[in-house]
UniProtKB/TrEMBL annotation, chains A, B:
Superkingdom of the organism of origin: Bacteria
EC number(s) from the headed UniProt entry: 1.-.-.-
Luciferase-like domain ranges (all copies): 29-377
Any GO MF annotation of the entry: oxidoreductase activity
Entry-linked Pfam families: Bac_luciferase (PF00296)
Xref: Gene3D superfamilies: Luciferase-like domain
Protein family membership: Belongs to the NtaA/SnaA/DszA monooxygenase family.
Keywords from the UniProt entry: Flavoprotein, FMN, Monooxygenase, Oxidoreductase
Organism field: Dactylosporangium vinaceum
Name listed for the protein in its UniProt record: LLM class flavin-dependent oxidoreductase
Length: 438, 438
């Protein structure tokens, strides 16, 4: 048995993950649409042998008061992620390229084509982060007055994924022969129509592109609600989750692995990890304090409201989160923040403070960060991390230059890529086609 | 007044425009998914100072008998065009990048984002070829049992475009200030919600990306039916049309210009031009004859059937096209092929022969091709050409190496790019935002 490998994914928002990150000098004023800047960050992650880079996405500007919206960079001004991945495919050669696409506001034929193309363009480095989308502002850009109900959008996601996966198998591996002499481009026995008829979709197929190099691009998912976890257990190769205390992370890890084992699967679990590192703790704390001072409290409050999925307008900071109305619009993120508030008896003001303080970010030395990673990795709480960067380029540069060498020194992380595809990096097999003989 | 400029767009199918093109040695067996091969062709077009390259698209494998489908390359195995354009944006710096996206099977918010991103990635070189899609095979991949009716899909296209154009104006030019000191990312007075409510779409907006560098990516359209021409007149910067005899091309040109003038517009008209060139006519004819022999007659017949939009199964080649049933499924292409057949008294077999013979391709010397271009360009039949390449790389290389120098010698075509954006190349102004003060 080979040594278990630590996996690192770079969770990239060009304007920075921390809401005041864009205000830090060094972040270009057009970071969200500045491809050369973004490419430079990705090249750094590739030089640091990260498994992959991941671009999150929203399909609209969140509904916030203007005084909040005007202070936020990322969700107002961001390149569409699949086009960015395609552009990145030409200037990188090894790092995996993962983008978000919503199952609620796309058509499966389109998503199947785009990710098959990305997998071909990158020679087997593409991944799809399957999201069901979260908020009403997105729904209103796609003809709905409010977000799809929770149960409905997970049923749709399940079916959406099945259609996409089926379409990727339209051509058997090797069915396209391009036999010039006989004039036969492909072997018709190796082409399959899907003929899917379901609750949400009717899709005949076949997909008009040969099978992706990875057979199936890597599937990432971040479900934390009940249906979200079930979806992840069934389809995910990689499960993203938020930062949690060790015991909670262990429980989550065990639960994901156990649920997935029922499907004969063993997805990798990557909790989010934000870091501010410096040679000494005092320096790291000073660096963070300077940026924390740039965060407007209204923006932090809006962030709490966004994740809690409730209107906090007019409530005092000393109040608890308001009780939830019964209904089906709850999300996993909402359930988590309510559970956290109940467990620790937190007011709205406490939650705002947690966001302001970096929401679980590790602020310390390279050894502090490496200790955290090693602890979670060796104690069944993580297979690696979804590393976010509060502001850029500094926190990304520091992670690659200070933390990665420490992880390598400890024998926890690769020093070079040994495979060619994202599946290779993650230690995942190439799935056979559903039509392949056993 | 500056001298009128000839415009050349490269109409690129990696497997070749002629259906037997993929069988010509030199075309790689994976041309449709081989980005380095495609990139090499685009670099050649950029070196030849083409205005733009254009990627057509279909959203499905056409319904043909297996004996036809298995002999066809392009429509079975092609990268999704917006991802290809994004990848091309990084390896080119001047040539315009135009991709097809359907208004029948996409959502306007998605298309607005993707083309805004492409325009940012390419620094103002993106174009959108607006199509309404054509066939039932595509419809069945998007939940419909047959293609949308002609009138309905043009109403949808009109509304779709208006939503996309409105979303591109969400942020005023200069509204994103990224004022680090004040902490204000943008000026809220410069952000506009669309709040569109129409027959097909309800889209609130705003789009979550700053205004594209060109204000509005270049719009191409190829409508040849009545509603298609009306749409082109109202929205197109560039009108693609099929190859026509001079008098017909002049009539079409005059009609497009006249219709557009009612909207205060003057789109460029670019007829398709396929060429096989060689130093002598005999050599050009020999080259074409060798490839013509590779075309299976069943494939040529299927092509006639595809454009005619009727089932020709079981009809003798000596028969005329069958009479059309009344209905709303007719397309401009169908009307044109029926008009041509009626005018010239053509049987199905004659039409198959026309396809087999290259369907209007100019087969001759560089001077022959330049004469044709010059005649159409100077006699009010074309503002340039949508140059297709029957097989690759040879016919593309020959066009750039033999024809372009001849056009330059005659003072018809640029010797270097003088502008930075696709609008610059085409001589089109940057449209002001709809919200800009007069």
């Amino acid at each position: 048995m080979t040594t278990r490998q630590l996996h690192l994914n770079g969770f990239l928002k060009a304007a920075g993950e921390y809401h005041a990150g864009w205000r830090v000098p060094g972040n270009p004023p057009d970071a969200g649409v500045n491809f050369p800047f973004l490419a430079e960050q990705v090249r750094r992650l590739e030089a640091a042998t990260f498994d992959s880079v991941f671009l999150p996405d929203l399909l609209g500007v969140p509904d916030d008061p203007p005084a909040v919206t005007e202070r936020v960079a990322w969700s107002n001004d961001t390149l569409e992620p699949t086009t960015v991945l395609a552009a990145l495919s030409t200037i990188t050669s090894r790092i995996g390229l993962v983008a978000t696409a919503s199952t609620s506001y796309n058509q499966p034929y389109t998503v199947a084509r785009v990710f098959a193309s990305l997998d071909h363009l990158s020679k087997g480095r593409a991944g799809w982060n399957v999201v069901t989308s979260l908020n009403d502002a997105e729904a209103r850009n796609f003809g709905l007055s409010a977000h799809l109900g929770h149960a409905e959008r997970y049923r749709r996601a399940e079916e959406f994924f099945d259609v996409v996966a089926g379409l990727w198998d339209s051509f058997d591996d090797g069915a396209v022969r391009a036999d010039r002499v006989a004039g036969r481009f492909f072997d018709p026995a190796g082409l399959h129509r899907l003929d899917h008829h379901g609750e949400f979709f009717d899709v005949a197929g076949p997909l008009n592109i040969r099978r992706p190099p990875q057979g199936r691009p890597v599937i990432a998912q971040a479900g934390s609600s009940g249906p979200g976890r079930t979806l992840a257990a069934r389809i995910a190769d990689v499960v993203f989750t938020r930062a949690l205390p060790l015991a909670d992370a262990q429980a989550y890890y065990a639960s994901v692995k156990q649920q997935a084992s029922a499907f004969g699967r063993a997805p990798l679990v990557l909790p989010e990890l934000a870091t501010v590192v410096a040679p000494t703790r005092a320096e790291a704390e000073d660096r963070f304090a300077a940026v924390r001072d740039l965060l407007d409290p209204r923006v932090a409050l809006a962030d709490v409201q966004y994740w809690a999925g409730v209107d906090l307008t007019g409530l005092p900071l000393s109040a608890p989160l308001p009780p939830l109305a019964e209904g089906n619009r709850s999300t996993g993120a909402q359930a988590e923040i309510y559970a956290q508030a109940a467990r620790d008896n937190l007011t709205i003001g406490d939650l705002v403070q947690i966001v302001t303080d970096g929401d679980g970010a590790i602020i310390g030395t390279p050894a502090d960060v490496a200790d955290h990673i090693e602890e979670y990795f060796t104690q069944d709480a993580a297979d690696g991390f979804n590393v976010s960067f509060p502001w850029q380029p500094a926190t990304l540069v520091d992670f690659t230059e200070l933390v990665v060498p420490e992880l390598r020194r400890r024998g926890l992380f690769r020093t070079e890529y040994t495979g060619a595809t994202l599946r290779d990096h993650l230690g995942l097999p190439r799935p056979p086609s559903r039509y392949a003989p056993d």
